Predict the 3D structure of the following.
Amino acid sequence: MKNYISLFVVLSFLLFSGCEGPTGPAGPAGAPGTDALTDANVALKVLWTFPANGQVGPISNLGNEISVRFNKILNVSTVNQSIQISPTNTGYARMDTNNISVPTGDVVSFSLQYDSSNVWKIGQTYTITVLTTLKDINGNTLSTPYSFSFTPEPYFRVTYINPSNGAVSISRDPGVSIEFNNEIDFLSFQASISINPVIPGTWVNYGNYVYLSSTSQLSANTVYTVTLGTGMKDEQGRTLPAPYTFSFTTGQQ
C-alpha cells in the first residue's frame, strides 16, 4: 500500500509542476542614471544623415537643409568649425555657420546659403565632412573625419507646376506657371511649349520660372493639357530628359 501512495505522490508532482526547468537567478539591475547619449565610455559616431550617403536626386523635401545625427549629445561650441561642404560653387550651396543648430543635442541641422534661384548645381555631387574637432559633451571626438556625398539635382527638370497635374474645377481665369531647377533658355521654352486646346496669352520669363497670363476666359468643363518637349533647354544647354506633360480641368465658373 505504501508503494501505491508513493507512486501517486510522484505522479501528482509531475502533473502539476509541468515541464519547465528551474528558473535562473535574476540579472543585475542596470546602473542608475546610465544613458548612452551621455556615457563617457561610448565613442562618438554618426548614426544617419539626410540626405543619405550616395543618394541621387531628385530628393524629396531637401530644400537647403542638411541633418546629421550622432549617438551622443554634442558639445555645441565645437559644431560650427567642424562641418564643411565641398565643392562650394559660386551662387550655389555653401556653408552658413550662422545657421547651424543642434535642436535635440544629438542632431546637427544646418541651412546652406545660396545666391542664385536654386540651391543645387545640376549634375554636381556634394560632400559633407564632419571633422575630428567635433566633440561630444564628454570630450570624445570622432576617430576619423566622417564624410557623406549626394547628388541632389542630377538633371534639368520641372520642379513645380500650377495648376497641379490632375487638378479639377479650376477657375476659368487661371494663370499657368512652371518652375525649373535652373534658369532657362526662354527661346527654347517658347519653341517647346504647347497647350491643347490653346490658351491665348503671353508667357513671361522670371529666370527659372515662367508664367502664362491668359487674355481670355478658359472654356468651362474642359481638360487642358500642357506639354514641354525635349527641345526645352536651360541656360547651359541641358535639355529635359523626356517630354513633360500635365493636365487640369476647368470648372463651370
Observations:
- The radius of gyration is 31 Å.
- Residues 1-34 have pLDDT under 50 and may be disordered.
